[in-house]
Amino acid sequence: MGLFEKHSALLNQAIEALYKRTFFAAYPEHPAPAVYGETADADAQAAFKATLGKKFELLKQANATAWIGVEESPYTQEPLGITYPAFSIDTLINRAQSAYHVWRKVSAQDRTGILIESLERVRARFFEIAYATMHTTGQGYMMAFQASGPHAADRALEAIAAGYEELQRFPSATLWDKPMGKFNIQLNKEWRAVPKGISLVIGCSTFPTWNTVPGLYASLVTGNPVIVKPHPGAVLPIALVVAEIQQVLSEQNLDPNICQLAVDSYDKTITKELAEHPCVKLIDFTGNSAFGSYLEGLKGKAVFTEKTGVNSVILDSVADADKVASNLAFSLSLYSGQMCTAPQNFYIPEGGIKTASGTVSFDEFAQKLVDNINSLADNPKAGPFVLGAIQNKNTCTRVADAEKIPGKVWVKSRSIENPMFKNARINTPILVEVDAAKKEIFSKELFGPIALLIKTKDTDHSIALAQEMALNHGAISCGAYTTDGAVREKIADAMALAATPVSFNLTGGIYMNQNASFSDFHVTGGNPSGNASFTNPEYVVKRFTWVGHREPVAAG
């Protein structure tokens, strides 16, 4: 049995899920021993610890010119001491170019089977990837396991399924028969899906697998070799994924350089040189808007970006103000707001928020948010693990600077202790009231545990501001609370025109910054927060081109 046949049932389930958009998950998100094995967690801890302070030698990339590693744990604030093989730009490009002519000749079915098999191998490393993610990004353990393990694998499978489906859209050959009256013209026609060429996937520091694997697998399934360039501060999680891909390729007697890892350091980066190389035809990027916009402007390349945005919450009317405040406080605190979908701007009418039992004033709701933030932070069994740790020291600086924002500081950020990691960088959310007229303050992404309360004239004013921010500065998510159907439609329509999805009336169980594979499109590509979407057809069809050949049918 070949790998395609081995995984065809799962592939068919994934393709069906793409169309139905209902719940589907191939990889269980709960780290239960009954699912993943009684010793999975302990084995992973041991494997992670064994990696520290050593060369990462799982990759099948030979003849490194140097070994580089600058990762530091946000929990211990100590270097991981792991080094990775480094190569010159020319070596990476030459190996990828050579691999291109091997990989493009592999059938779509065989590529798909190989890639799904690699995900099965990655599955066995979910716990190890979780610890790697914790100690590079600062995510809490549960988020690190779910987001970098099963959720990332689901996103990868989604990209594989979307790519495979588009590759099957047209026949590979047909007889073209055109009636001409007394005779017919007959041509044998064939079509080939030709991959664009070398793909560069640029990872981010906060979600090194979840944000990386969609582009990685989308390019691979469509026949393009990939160079993965992770953020210097978060290499290990995606290095483990690349290692498993290379292992499966080698087992199939294929060049492991079809998928390469390219590392660098903060003081000597290679991203720009790689991106500008004429042989690089595809670029996936997650990160800041300035560099993302630069990449989008490069000629002769298909570029897929997720950049920064300004996410809003519109508060009009609610069934239960306490539940809403609790939900929003959790969403603000989750991973200390270090997510592209985290809420930042909270628009609250000066007349307050309507409820069944009366109106909750602006100040009353602000205080409810404060109380819930403090209650969560002060819960030793929840707070440190929901907040995680701050990935980058610059984020701590932004949080400190937020106290200088003009306006009332409802709650200051403070440091709390993680009982397992005494040196962890932790900052609770800061909440600042900002004048609605001072758009220059809330029209940029502050990134981190920073939230702004903006007093508006009314809900229409709130909607207008949220739409304006999304249209002009980008937005990846929007939360809205209303019990009025007409207002709901007004919000939905306004934000749809701003290409921003809305989560309505979430009060627990799911939070606005959670995003489901096979159902939610992550980023729309329709506003300045990014030009691509996980995963719509455009995300994969731009990675190859249809080329046709034709020939007259031979007589006789």
Question: How would you describe what is shown here?
Answer:
- The longest helix has 27 residues, at about 140-165.
- The chain has a 7-stranded mixed sheet with strand order 14-15-16-11-10-17-18, sandwiched between helices. The chain has a 5-stranded parallel sheet with strand order 7-6-5-8-9, with helices on both faces. The protein has a 3-stranded antiparallel sheet with strand order 3-4-19, with no helix packed on it.
- The mean pLDDT is about 95.
- Helix 3 crosses helix 6 and helix 6 (about 125-135) runs antiparallel to helix 9 (about 235-250).
- The chain has helices at about 5-20, 35, 40-50, 90-105, 110-125, 125-135, 140-165, 215-220, 235-250, 270-275, 290-295, 320-335, 360-375, 385, 395-400, 440, 460-475, 485-495, 535-540, and strands at about 65-70, 85, 175-180, 185-195, 200, 225-230, 260, 280-285, 300-305, 310-315, 345-350, 355, 360, 410, 430-435, 450-455, 480, 500-505, 545-550.
- The chain has 2 domains: about 5-305 and about 530-550, 3-Layer(aba) Sandwich (Aldehyde Dehydrogenase, Chain A, domain 1), CATH 3.40.605; about 310-505, Aldehyde Dehydrogenase, Chain A, domain 2 (3-Layer(aba) Sandwich), CATH 3.40.309.
- Strand 5 (about 200), helix 8 (about 215-220) and strand 6 (about 225-230) form a beta-alpha-beta unit.
- The chain is built from 19 helices and 19 strands.
- It starts with a helix and ends with a strand.
- With about 550 residues, the protein is α/β, with parallel strands linked by helices.
